[in-house]
């Protein structure tokens, strides 16, 4: 391939990226990687490292602490970078399949969620906390046939630090979300949804 043809190809690619970027409301200046998919144009890349996505650490803490505040004896959660590192590593591992599958950690509590498109960590926390309606404080149980284990993880007295991560999965615009908690509380999260 001649030199000028190579340049033309590079230009054409850059034009294509610019074109698709606009459709996706992204700009070429963003430090995000993209892969180009022949069928659906541009896709967010798959090589991007797990992070908290569009939700800030503070927003993650606020969402948890708003719910913890409803129970007077609870202390607020703080961000734990060690825990967040673990969450990132596991989110990275699940990029390959976005399976709704827990890590086998024994040292952290854990809530997970999967979704697609623009799902955020905040969406996941709100979803987990909506299980509050299924929980009975008096007996510390979920209603019959109901899930409340994600909510109870958020309100365990001992779980005062948290770290979360989100990854973009390889297939179908999938999103994998995980929050880990230290120290862990009772672990009764067995009902995925
Ligand atoms: C953060 O988590 C680690 C366990 O991974 C723990 O040893 C450490 O004490 C925690 N930090 C705080 C402030 O609790
Ligand atoms: C919670 O923390 C307290 C004080 O650190 C400890 O005594 C207790 O065993 C913990 N409870 C659980 C369920 O881990």
TrEMBL record:
GO cellular component labels = extracellular space
Q: Does the keyword Repressor apply?
A: no
Q: Which domain of life is it from?
A: Eukaryota
UniProt-listed InterPro entries: Allrgn_V5/Tpx1_CS, CAP_dom, CAP_sf, CRISP-related
PROSITE patterns in the cross-refs: CRISP_1, CRISP_2
Question: Which Gene3D superfamilies does the annotation name?
Answer: CAP (3.40.33.10)
Q: SMART domains recorded for this chain?
A: SCP
**Signal sequence range:** 1-23
Any idea where the SCP domain is?
55-189
Q: Name the Pfam families on file.
A: CAP
- Give the UniProt keywords, A-Z: Pathogenesis-related protein, Plant defense, Signal
Q: Which PANTHER family match?
A: CYSTEINE-RICH SECRETORY PROTEIN-RELATED
Q: What is this protein called?
A: CAP superfamily protein
Q: Which organism is it from?
A: Helianthus annuus
């Amino acid at each position: 391939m001649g030199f000028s043809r190579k340049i033309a190809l590079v230009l054409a690619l850059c034009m294509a990226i610019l074109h698709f970027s606009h459709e996706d409301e992204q700009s070429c200046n963003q430090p995000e990687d993209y892969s180009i998919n022949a069928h659906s144009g541009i896709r967010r890349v798959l090589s991007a490292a797990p992070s908290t996505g569009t939700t800030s650490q503070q927003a993650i803490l606020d969402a948890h602490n708003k719910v913890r505040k409803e129970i007077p004896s609870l202390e607020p959660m703080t961000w734990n970078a060690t825990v967040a590192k673990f969450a990132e590593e596991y989110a990275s591992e699940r990029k390959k399949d976005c399976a709704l599958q827990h890590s086998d950690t024994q040292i952290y509590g854990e809530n997970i969620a999967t979704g697609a498109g623009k799902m955020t960590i905040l969406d996941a926390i709100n979803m987990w906390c909506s299980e509050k309606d299924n929980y009975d404080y008096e007996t510390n149980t979920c209603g019959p046939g109901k899930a409340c284990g994600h909510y109870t993880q958020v309100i365990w007295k001992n779980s005062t630090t948290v770290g979360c991560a989100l990854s973009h999965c390889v297939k179908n615009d999938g999103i994998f979300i995980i929050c880990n908690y230290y120290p862990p509380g009772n672990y009764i999260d067995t009902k995925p949804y």
